[in-house]
Amino acid sequence: MGRIEKKHIDRIFNRKYSIADHRMLSEGFKQGDKLEDTRELVEQHWDEFEEPQEKNKETLNRVYNQINEIIGKEKHSRKLSLIHYLTKVAAILFIPLLIASLLLWNQRNEKNQEVATLNFEAPYGIRSQFTLPDGTKGWLNSGSTLKYTAGLPSQRSVELEGEAYFQVKRDEARPFYVQTDAFDIKVLGTKFNVNTFDGEVDGDLVLESGSVQIIDRTNKNKTLMVKPGQRITYEKKLGAYYRSSVDVDEYINWIEGKLVFQNEPLKEVVKRMERYYNVEFEIKDEALPSLKFRAVLEEELLEESLRYMSLVLPIEYKIIERQKNSDGTVSRRKVIITKN
């Protein structure tokens, strides 16, 4: 692995990074001979955000001391809270680190089986890959969390909040279960996407390959088999499920960094953009939320996406940059949309 350079941090900061860039930055935090170089490069971003102050430098020192302490204890601790510290680091330094980190490692003896609880998180503005101990792989969309219980002898189980794409490793003796607020999912080996973001859908599943079984949370005897190319949506208020045939790519291309809008109302568009770009939107005019927007945005910067939106819709926008709060935290960027 080569030495970390400013271009690596620049690409991560601007959400144009590769797996290699992320690995490079991770190594820069972990390896003693690279830590000082990493510190200097990150400090450049710190200074570019605002005029350096003594208080800021002291905060940087505390951040790095925490990182060193965490790394030093990582091999010996059985209870880790890395995400608690790393999220603070990302918030302070404005670096959208790809986080799918071990939150908590609980060990107990259950029939001589070691049981581990792993939590993965993708903060706003980040999509993160994960690999579970059983070999299952996938992606977490921005603003999502996944909890995995490993070591149980008879089953594999995760709890999902938000949206995730799964490539489940086949194991007929141990089914894979996904628990959501909307419904539960039982699979053996398959590829599928689940979306349970609050305020967008009650529950949404799209199957790419294999087969899955949806289990109603209020009535375990109520099940629904899903075939490839099918989408199941759940309306919680009515307790109703709806089945349709769809182009699967439209629902899973977010893992490639694409935002696809198919004539969606502006009020729904901005919800997804808030997570994707880690910004806050405010729509000023009452007539604007119902405007329909159709576009495919692929790894576009926020400004580029807003510029295109203003060309096809009768809107104007204003970006309010991050502001430092009185408690030392920093607000998210805010986008105000008005009628043109």
Q: Overview of this structure, please?
A:
There is one protein chain. It contains eight helices and 21 strands. The strands form five sheets. The chain has a seven-stranded mixed beta sheet, with no helix packed on it. Strands 4-5-8-11-12-15-16 form a seven-stranded antiparallel beta sheet, with no helix packed on it. Strands 18-21-20 form a three-stranded mixed beta sheet, with helices on one face. A hairpin with a 6-residue loop joins β13 (212-216) and β14 (223-226). The chain is α+β, with helices and mostly antiparallel strands and 340 residues long. The protein has three domains: 6-91, no CATH class; 109-251, Jelly Rolls; 257-339, Phage tail protein beta-alpha-beta fold, CATH 3.55.50.30. α4 runs antiparallel to α5.
Task: Outline the fold blueprint.
Layout: H1 6-13, H2 19-30, H3 32-49, H4 54-73, H5 82-93, E1 109-110, E2 113-114, E3 116-122, E4 128-131, E5 137-140, E6 144-150, E7 156-161, E8 163-167, E9 176-179, E10 183-187, E11 191-195, E12 203-209, E13 212-216, E14 223-226, E15 230-235, E16 240-245, H6 249-252, E17 258-265, H7 266-277, E18 279-283, E19 292-298, H8 302-312, E20 315-320, E21 333-339
Provide a compact summary of the structure:
The protein is of the alpha+beta class and 340 residues long. It has helices spanning 6-13, 19-30, 32-49, 54-73, 82-93, 249-252, 266-277, 302-312, and strands spanning 109-110, 113-114, 116-122, 128-131, 137-140, 144-150, 156-161, 163-167, 176-179, 183-187, 191-195, 203-209, 212-216, 223-226, 230-235, 240-245, 258-265, 279-283, 292-298, 315-320, 333-339. It starts with 5 loop residues before the first helix and ends with a strand.
